[in-house]
Amino acid sequence: MQKRTMLYEGKAKRLYETDDKDLYIVSYKDDATAFNGKKRGSILGKGAINNKVTNHMMQLLEGEGIPTHFVTQLSETDTLVKAVTIIPLEVIVRNIAAGSLSSRLGLEEGVHLATPVLEFCYKRDDLDDPMVNMYHIKALSLATDEQVQQITSYALRINEVLCSYLRDLGITLVDFKLEFGMTSSGQLLLSDEISPDTCRFWDTKTNKKLDKDRFRRDLGDVEAAYQELLSRLMGDA
Ligand code: C5P
């Protein structure tokens, strides 16, 4: 399958049309940004790692009954996916306080939440992806009630599946972001990526961060942490 017209270039990925209107190719980049593009850099090998981690997670979730856009990995950095129109919501699931939740609610990083917290943000870089509730989603027609219900159910199930899978590998899933899209035939699919760029992964014993917070906060060893996460998932660490 060949890449044709580039449809979109984001901070960490490029998306291409193919000769099949129902299939796209996603190509992962080493470029890294944080704080909505205010901090920029590059993490050597990140594109290949995020491609592999995402595909691993998508296949795990497919096996648990979550429909995803994953079709097949084409190369180190490229994957064939089903074409979808992305719903303009970032769906965040949190198990432990960190990042913007800690600052917003004055919770110390690492505080365990009594139940998972689900948040929706409006995907708008120019507005710094503001958090929205059901009323905003309805009033702005960002998604239908049915889509929100289905997304909620999938997101909480994804959290259960990933938490349990990662727990066995000695990794704590602190929080993560999901995106969903609709196919031309009206199927809702988990899309985008599930990687150290979009999740907070902590080593369960030491609380060492194995994710993009190392880049965001200049903690060092960014490449090594991404590689360690991949190695643990692939069972060779
Ligand atoms: O920054 P914040 O604490 O709200 O992030 C929550 C989770 O969502 C983190 O795992 C972060 O990596 C992810 N996220 C993301 N893309 C965004 C915002 C958050 O992947 N635009």
From TrEMBL:
The protein's UniProt keywords, in alphabetical order, are: ATP-binding, Ligase, Nucleotide-binding, Purine biosynthesis
This protein's source sits in the domain of life called Bacteria
Q: What is its EC number?
A: 6.3.2.6
The protein's annotated pathway: Purine metabolism; IMP biosynthesis via de novo pathway; 5-amino-1-(5-phospho-D-ribosyl)imidazole-4-carboxamide from 5-amino-1-(5-phospho-D-ribosyl)imidazole-4-carboxylate: step 1/2
> Which GO BP terms sit in this record?
'de novo' IMP biosynthetic process; cobalamin biosynthetic process
- Catalytic activity line of the entry: 5-amino-1-(5-phospho-D-ribosyl)imidazole-4-carboxylate + L-aspartate + ATP = (2S)-2-[5-amino-1-(5-phospho-beta-D-ribosyl)imidazole-4-carboxamido]succinate + ADP + phosphate + 2 H(+)
Q: Which GO terms describe its molecular function?
A: ATP binding; phosphoribosylaminoimidazolesuccinocarboxamide synthase activity
Q: Enumerate the InterPro entries for this protein.
A: SAICAR_synt/ADE2_N (IPR028923), SAICAR_synt_PurC (IPR033934), SAICAR_synth (IPR001636), SAICAR_synthetase (IPR050089), SAICAR_synthetase_CS (IPR018236)
Q: Which residues form the SAICAR synthetase/ADE2 N-terminal domain?
A: 7-232
Q: Which HAMAP family match?
A: SAICAR_synth (MF_00137)
Instruction: Please give the family membership noted in the entry.
Output: Belongs to the SAICAR synthetase family.
Which named protein is this?
A: Phosphoribosylaminoimidazole-succinocarboxamide synthase
Q: Native species of this protein?
A: Sphaerochaeta halotolerans
